[in-house]
UniProtKB/TrEMBL annotation:
InterPro entries assigned to the protein according to its UniProt record, in alphabetical order: Aerotolerance_reg_N, VWF_A, vWFA_dom_sf
Name of the protein described by the UniProt record: BatA and WFA domain-containing protein
Source organism of this protein record: Sporosarcina highlanderae
Aerotolerance regulator N-terminal domain boundaries: 1-78
TM regions (residue ranges): 6-24, 59-80, 560-579
Length: 587
């Protein structure tokens, strides 16, 4: 309960004045004195505690004070808070991230929130309702929909996307559709800090529904594996986010077949981390770590990794132009410069970029050769012509200028020419050869240069059946071998999606290992949880923002109850009148 008119507190002077009046008013008591000898003694007895005696056995005083206090209570404008809808537009922001899979009781947070959303939608049937789901790209399922059946159907279709919530983006999205007419926005998540509402908007109220119960969670924080001469080695980092020591078992499985490769029991202290290592595992293409433990969040109890030529490290020959290194850095790879000896040591663990043709005959993995240090160039003039190859799918290089070329390699396939002479070639192993120095072209001035570098890196890594790792719903171009498109399946051969080209590829939402069918070639890729989704949070719900007012200036969301006390006041006045009528004033 609250008070809407605290400024009327000054009226408390009236009951105080009545109290003082009863303290000091004269009161006469009829007394029979048998002798004048006892008169003085009797007078002394009547003067004992004169102020308190004025209040004793005085029904009229208590009735008057009760009436005054009730009047004061009414003037302060008492009210009870109530659920209110500031406008006719309600917006639901639904967190669909992986952490909403944590269970509270028998239901997950996501399923519990769906029930709350459905209940609110039924209470506001006929009002405009919008539903937004979270993610890097927030989705608007329905906008200002007044059809109750359409709203309930959209709620029933809600499903977890496992992608990090990026709640600030969803809030900004909600503001963009609510600022004009105002809205009552309800956010359903596990925890949301008040700092995201640093700037408030008039007309929008925010109600945050959270998980208020602490949850026990032991997560696979990190998982890595590498192929060695003795098989495969794996290491797992566990994180105990609970407040007690927990036992468990870690099981390492073949990521494709599900065969158990190794097991290990463990105990992990409260709030501690634990490293588990597994050595001399069989050589496999994918490994899955499965954590068996009693906690409230099962989604982060599995992790997986593909083993193959998926290196993100590039070693650029120190003799090459600095712009080559900058181009690899621009596409997000880890780039270092090295000498010939350093490149020889890491030639099978990283992508090599050099102008030394000897690397074409060494090692087992293809390289990118840019120029030749064993020959001299010859001047050329003319337009660049390319064949239909996936290397040029992302960007065309026909508009670049090349002033000179090195001699071509015998037996290599020619992918691009200048004036009929080979400019870009590919070996049978998959090496990509650019027969010119960057300084002899204007290629770095064109957007196609970093795109060609990206395509080359993807092609050099495509020798294995490993496409790479993705996060849920990640949009990322993948290099395809033809124009037939690609199809995505689970490891159990369940169809997931199709894409007409690699540029439109979107990773599945659910973590796991998937198969990509590209022109009859079967490759694997993984979808992994982001690190931020391996933590479960809790906190109190709250309301934020300003409540709308109507034309009379009264605030909505307040149930005024002062009028309920008018009848008791009238009843007290009636009783006062009856007391004075019967007893009269004392003489």
């Amino acid at each position: 309960m609250g008070f809407d008119q605290l400024s009327n507190m000054w009226t408390a002077v009236f009951p105080l004045a009545v109290l003082l009046y009863y303290f000091f008013r004269k009161k006469y008591v009829t007394t029979t004195i048998s002798s004048t000898l006892f008169w003085e003694k009797s007078m002394r007895e009547t003067k004992v505690s004169p102020y308190l005696k004025n209040l004793q056995r005085n029904a009229l005083f208590y009735l008057q004070m009760a009436a005054f206090l009730l009047f004061l209570f009414i003037l302060l404008g008492p009210f009870l808070p109530k659920e209110s809808v500031p406008t006719s537009h309600t917006v639901f922001i639904v967190d669909t991230s992986a952490s909403m899979g944590a269970t509270v009781g028998e239901l997950s947070l996501f399923e519990s929130n769906k029930e709350k959303i459905q209940e609110l939608a039924e209470q506001r049937a006929g009002s405009a309702i919008s539903i937004i789901t979270t993610g890097k790209e927030p989705s608007l399922l329905v906008r200002k929909e007044t059809d109750e059946r359409a709203v309930l159907a959209a709620i029933n279709q809600l499903d977890m996307q496992y992608e990090h919530e990026h709640m600030a983006r969803s809030i900004d999205f909600a503001k963009s559709i609510a600022l004009q007419d105002g809205a009552d926005v309800h956010i359903f998540t596990d925890f949301l800090d008040r700092s995201v509402f640093m700037e408030s908007e008039n007309g929008i109220t925010w109600t945050v529904h959270t998980n208020e119960k602490p949850l026990a969670n032991i997560a696979i924080e990190k998982f890595g594996a590498v192929a060695t001469m003795n098989g495969t080695e794996a290491i797992v980092k566990l994180s105990n986010q609970s407040t007690s020591k927990q036992p468990g078992k870690m099981i390492i499985k073949n990521g494709v077949t599900g065969e158990t490769l190794s097991e290990q029991d463990f105990f992990i202290d409260a709030g501690a981390d634990l490293l588990l290592s597994f050595k001399e595992l069989p050589t496999v293409s994918a490994i899955r770590a499965v954590l068996q433990v009693q906690d409230d969040y099962p989604t982060d109890n599995e992790a997986l990794i593909l083993i193959g030529n998926a290196s993100s490290e590039v070693i650029v020959d120190s003799q090459l132009h600095e712009l080559v290194k900058k181009a690899f850095e621009a596409i997000g790879l880890t780039v270092t410069t090295g000498s010939v000896s350093e490149m020889e040591m890491a030639r099978d663990q990283a992508i090599l970029v050099t102008n030394d043709p000897s690397f074409l005959r060494e090692g087992t993995e293809p390289i990118l050769l840019m120029g030749r240090n064993d020959s001299s160039t010859e001047p050329v003039s003319g337009m660049v012509q390319t064949v239909n190859d996936s290397l040029f799918t992302i960007a065309s290089i026909k508009d670049i200028y090349v002033s000179a070329l090195y001699p071509p390699f015998e037996g290599y396939a020619t992918l691009a020419t200048v004036d009929g002479k080979p400019f870009i070639q590919r070996s049978q192993r998959g090496d990509i050869v650019v027969l010119s120095d960057i300084a002899l072209t204007d290629w770095p001035l064109h957007p196609s240069f970093p795109l060609f570098i990206w395509s080359s890196a993807e092609m050099l890594r495509s020798g294995s059946d490993n496409v790479g790792a993705f996060i849920p719903n990640e949009r990322k171009a993948v290099l395809t071998s033809g124009s037939e498109g690609i199809e995505i399946f689970t490891t159990e051969d369940k169809y997931v999606a199709s894409y007409p080209d690699g540029g439109s590829f979107v990773a599945p939402s659910k973590p796991g290992i998937y198969k990509m069918i590209d022109g009859g070639t079967e490759k694997y890729f993984s979808v992994q949880l982001e690190l931020g989704e391996k933590i479960v949070s809790h906190g109190s719900g709250y309301k934020q923002g300003f409540v709308e007012t109507d034309d009379a200036g009264k605030e909505e969301g307040k149930n005024m109850i002062g009028w309920l006390f008018l009848l008791p006041v009238l009843l007290l006045l009636l009783i006062e009148w009856e007391v004075q009528r019967r007893r009269g004033y004392p003489n």
